[in-house]
Structures are given as structure tokens and as C-alpha cells.
Design goal:
The complex is a heterodimer of chains A (about 260) and B (about 280). With about 260 residues, chain A is an alpha/beta fold. In chain A, about 30% of the residues lie in helices and about 30% in strands. Chain A has a domain of about 70 residues. Chain B is mainly α and about 280 residues long. Chain B has a single domain, classed as ABC transporter involved in vitamin B12 uptake, BtuC. Chain B is about 85% helix and about 0% strand. Classes of the chains: A alpha/beta (about 260), B mainly alpha (about 280).
Chain lengths: ~260, ~280
């Protein structure tokens, strides 16, 4: 598979503060890649470096353009980072995904509106287009934000804690949608999550991120009890039940 | 005098008061939607105080520039770092605004103490804003600020709403969110500077807050919020000036009171709808 993003001995941080030192890994075309780690470990720092908002203090972060065009990202932020005081409709929110392509001094065209309608249908919320975004449920908001990312026609979809704060059915529904985008649309997916179960059962490759520790590889090899115990400083077991990976803490009685 | 006589008098004798107060009402009500949406309502109050500080500075003997220019320069000088601090996360926004607010007032009092040519009544008049005696020069400056602010906001409407809704994602799409934020605050600061000199701090702060809130209660569409807020900004000065003439009231407070009455009506309508 083609390499899309390459971290070459990259040291990431802010000013003099180093968050992650000398990390090297690649994101491949068609990857479903998970970034996992405790809060404050540096997951968002890696995202910023990928998205170009943070230059490495040392080393390199190389983006490899594909098909003679620059690498394009669709970004799905954490829902609580969005200010909902103004009642934008779902259609208006998704249209924002087209703004970069529209450019300055130009308005949303009929073609843009069609792209927005397609994106909404793709995530199965075409019926919500005129509803205020702020009135949607958590799962519907997440679908709208994914539609906005898709409306920009990205090569890589980046999701920051997409299932955070959701009930079980919404979580499963969103994870199924992301899997569908990966499997059916061949989108490269990077998902940041602190919910180990979500990541363990969906992504193909994973990076465990913690200050001083950076492990990357296939899920089965990286997501082990030994690695997680070392990362979280408590006993963690990784079991398999009916084909699913289950993360257990505290000697197997608690569910992480 | 009957209603027609009063309206005729306002239009003929005080045209700059009428059109000036409409200009300020319109632009402040429009920009106020962003200010309320950004949750920096106190920004309006702070900038009016900074603007008055700039005015006060022009009373110092060694500063030989017109009041309006002094006010504009000081407001813009504050606006740039203020915009950075308001978009950063190191210091809470209300702490930033509170600090600038109290510092601007303290600095003004210090300056006035040491400004021999100052007359307290003159500063008070400027602070309150004397709508009826708006000069043609000040009106033209305000009209210029109005045109610049409206043109920029209408041309870059989608960029401004994107940044105010989700700056983080906008940044990932190549929008320089910090620069757009700074442009917004610089424009708002210029408008607030001229407007404060023209109509006073109560009027400016009132119209940055009251019409947007009323509009948000009346409609659930973003473009209509801008439209309705702006219409309230046009309607309230006309009615307020009429009432001020009719009942011999100070004009700025009368206009703000009309805007507040509209807010009460909007809240009542909203409450009935929600039932």
C-alpha cells in the first residue's frame, strides 16, 4: 500500500515543552488507524502535526500527495468544541465542508448544495437537513459532522473522539458508519479515542501514545495486556469473547 | 406639536442625529450577533471604555490630535492584543475583558487628573454621547466605518460564520482562524470607537447586545437573526428619538429603552411559542 503520511523521528511539542520524542510511523493508503492513550498523552498533538497546525521540533512529518493532488483531510472534531449558540441548520453546517473549495468572495453554488445533499444521504440524515444542528441528538450531530468532512471530498478522514459521551446504540451506529466509510468508500481513517473497546474492535493498526511510550503496529500485536498495564499503571487483560476483543481491568472483574 | 411636526423637526433640524443613530444602531446590531455568538458580550463594554480612554488622552497638553483620532488609535492598539488573548486559552476570556475594562477606567481617571485643559463636563458629554449635536465630520467618519465594516462582513460572511462556529475545523481546512478573528475585532473596534464618540457608551453597548438577543428569540435561522437584529437597530433609534422629543427625554437612553422594549416583546413571543 502507498504511504500517505510519514513521521520520521519527529519530536513534537509546544515551545520548549516536548510532548513526544523521536516518533516514527506511517499511515498507509486505506489504513484504519487508531490513536489511543490517556488524556494529555499527545494524541491531539499528533493530529495537529498531521493537519499541518504544528511543526515538529525535530525530525519530519511528510505528507505524500496522491493522484497528483495535495493530500486532503476531512476533520471531525470533538462535538463539544463546537459553539452551538447560533442555530445553524444541518445543511448550513455540512456546507461549511465546501468552503475551502469555494474560495474567498464566492458563494455556495448549486453544485456545492448537491455535494452537501449527497454527503447527508451518505450518512443517512438527509431528512434532517433543515433541522437546527443544536437540536440534534449526539449521534445525529456526529453524523452531521462526518457529512461535513465528507463534503470536502477528502482522502483521509480524521475523527477526534467520535463516540465520546454517546449511549451504546449511538456508539455502535457511529462505529458501523465509520467502518462502512472505510470498507465501502476506501477512505483512509484515523480515529483518536480513549475508549479502548471502540478502537480494539474496529481499527486495523494502532498507536499507543503516552509520554515516554509510543508503540505502533497491528492491533493484535500492540493491544496486549502487558502494554496496556504498563501504559495505565494498573492490571489490564485483553481477552477475546465471541470474536470481539474485550479489555478487562483490575484482575478481570471490571470493564474498562 | 403633533406627531408629524415632531418627525419633521427631527428630519429637518437634526438629520445627523437621526441618520447617525440609525447607522450606529444598524452596524452595532449586526456586529453584535457575532459578539453574542462568540460569548464575548462584555467586549462591547470594554471597547467603549477603551475608546473613552483614547478620547481622554487627547486632552493631555502634549497630545495634539483630534478626539476621534485619539479614540480610534487607542482602541485599535488595544484591539490587536485583545483579539489574541480572547482567542487563546491561557487566560479566561472574562478575566481578560475585566482586566482591560478596569485598567481603561483607571487610566482615564489618571489622565483626567493630569490634563489641565480638560473640563469634566466636556468628558461627561462625550462619554454619554450627544446624539442631537452630531457633527457632519463625525457623521461622515461613522458612515465610512459603516460601509467598510458592512462590505467586509458581507463579502466574507461565510468565513466569519465558519470561524465563529468551529474555528478548530476551519483551521484544518487552511483558514487562518486567528487572522479572521483579528480582522473581526479590529473592525468591531473601529466601529465602536467612532460610535462611542458619536452616541455614547450606553447606546453602543446596548445595541451590541439587545437586538441580537431579541433576534435570537424571534427566529431559528442564522441569516434571519442577522436581518432581524439589524432591523431592530434601524427601528429603535427612529422610535427612540421620537419619544425623546415628545417627552423631553435624553435621546440615547430613550433609544436603548425602545430596544429593550422590543426584547421584552421578543421574549414574550418566544415564551408563547415554546408552550
Amino acid at each position: 500500500m502507498t504511504t500517505l503520511i510519514e513521521f520520521r523521528k519527529a519530536t513534537l511539542g509546544y515551545g520548549r515543552k516536548v510532548v513526544l520524542r523521536d516518533i516514527s510511523f506511517t499511515i498507509l493508503d486505506g489504513d484504519y488507524f487508531g490513536l489511543v492513550g490517556p488524556n494529555g498523552a499527545g494524541k491531539t498533538t499528533i493530529l495537529r502535526a498531521i493537519l499541518g497546525g504544528l511543526k515538529p521540533l525535530n525530525g519530519e512529518v511528510v505528507l505524500h500527495p496522491g493522484n497528483n493532488r495535495p493530500l486532503t483531510f476531512g476533520y471531525v472534531p470533538q462535538r463539544d468544541s463546537i459553539d452551538e449558540i447560533l442555530p445553524y441548520t444541518v445543511e448550513e453546517v455540512v456546507a461549511m465542508g465546501r468552503y475551502r473549495g469555494i474560495g474567498l468572495l464566492r458563494r455556495v453554488s448549486a453544485a456545492d448544495r448537491q455535494a452537501v445533499a449527497r454527503a447527508l444521504e451518505h450518512v443517512a440524515i438527509g431528512n434532517l437537513r433543515d433541522r437546527p444542528f443544536k437540536d440534534l441528538s449526539g449521534g445525529q450531530k456526529q453524523r452531521a459532522l462526518i457529512a461535513r468532512a465528507l463534503a470536502s471530498d477528502p482522502q483521509i478522514l480524521i475523527l477526534d473522539e467520535p463516540t465520546n459521551g454517546m449511549d451504546l446504540s449511538s456508539r455502535i451506529s457511529i462505529l458501523d458508519l465509520i467502518k462502512q466509510l472505510h470498507d465501502d468508500d476506501a477512505l483512509t481513517i484515523i480515529m483518536v479515542s480513549h475508549l479502548l473497546d471502540d478502537v480494539a474492535n474496529h481499527v486495523q493498526r494502532i498507536a499507543l501514545v503516552e509520554p515516554g511510550v509510543f508503540l505502533v503496529g497491528d492491533v493484535d500485536k500492540v493491544l496486549t495486556g502487558a502494554n496496556l498495564s504498563a501504559m495505565y499503571h494498573l492490571p489490564v487483560r485483553v481477552d477475546h469473547l465471541h470474536g470481539s476483543t474485550v479489555i478487562l481491568t483490575g484482575g478481570g472483574h471490571g470493564h474498562h | 406639536m403633533d406627531t408629524i411636526d415632531i418627525l419633521t423637526t427631527i428630519v429637518k433640524e437634526f438629520p445627523y442625529a437621526l441618520w447617525g443613530s440609525i447607522l450606529v444602531g444598524t452596524i452595532c446590531s449586526f456586529l453584535g450577533v457575532y459578539i453574542v455568538a462568540k460569548r464575548v458580550v462584555f467586549f462591547g463594554a470594554v471597547l467603549t471604555q477603551v475608546s473613552v480612554l483614547g478620547l481622554a488622552a487627547t486632552f493631555l497638553p502634549f497630545i495634539m490630535i483630534p478626539h476621534t483620532i485619539g479614540s480610534l488609535v487607542v482602541t485599535l492598539v488595544f484591539a490587536v492584543p485583545l483579539s489574541r488573548l480572547l482567542t487563546g486559552k491561557k487566560i479566561p476570556r472574562d478575566a481578560v475583558l475585566g482586566t482591560v475594562f478596569v485598567t481603561a477606567i483607571a487610566a482615564r481617571l489618571l489622565i483626567l487628573q493630569k490634563a489641565p485643559k480638560v473640563e469634566t463636563a466636556e468628558i461627561d458629554n462625550i462619554l454619554r454621547g450627544d446624539i442631537l449635536f452630531v457633527t457632519p465630520d463625525l457623521f461622515l467618519l461613522m458612515a465610512g466605518a459603516f460601509v467598510v465594516a458592512m462590505v467586509i462582513h458581507l463579502l466574507f460572511f461565510k468565513e466569519f460564520i465558519y470561524i465563529s462556529f468551529d474555528a478548530e475545523t476551519a483551521r484544518t481546512q487552511g483558514f487562518r482562524a486567528d487572522r479572521w478573528e483579528m480582522l473581526f475585532y479590529v473592525i468591531a473596534s473601529g466601529v465602536i470607537s467612532f460610535a462611542t464618540h458619536m452616541v455614547g457608551d450606553i447606546y453602543v453597548f446596548g445595541f451590541l447586545v439587545i437586538p441580537p438577543v431579541a433576534a435570537m428569540l424571534l427566529t431559528r435561522r442564522v441569516k434571519r437573526i442577522f436581518l432581524i437584529s439589524t432591523l431592530i437597530g434601524i427601528f429603535s433609534p427612529v422610535v427612540g428619538l421620537f419619544l425623546a422629543f415628545t417627552f423631553d427625554l435624553p435621546s440615547s437612553p430613550a433609544i436603548v429603552a425602545v430596544a429593550f422594549a422590543v426584547l421584552v416583546i421578543a421574549w414574550t413571543v418566544h415564551s408563547f411559542r415554546e408552550r
